[in-house]
Amino acid sequence: MIGCRDIHKEYRVGRANKTVLKGVDFDINPRDRIGLLGRNGAGKSTLIRLIGGVEMPTRGRIVRNMSCSWPLGFTGGFQGSLTGYDNARFIARIYEKPYADMRAFVEDFTELGQHLHMPVKQYSSGMRARLAFALSLAIEFECYLIDEVIMVGDKNFRDKCQSAFFEERKDRALLLASHSLTTVKQYCNRAVVLHDGIATVYEDVDEAIAVYEEL
Question: Which burial class, exposed, middle or buried, applies to 119 when counting CB atoms under 10 A from its CB (0-12, 13-18, 19+)?
Answer without folding.
Answer: middle
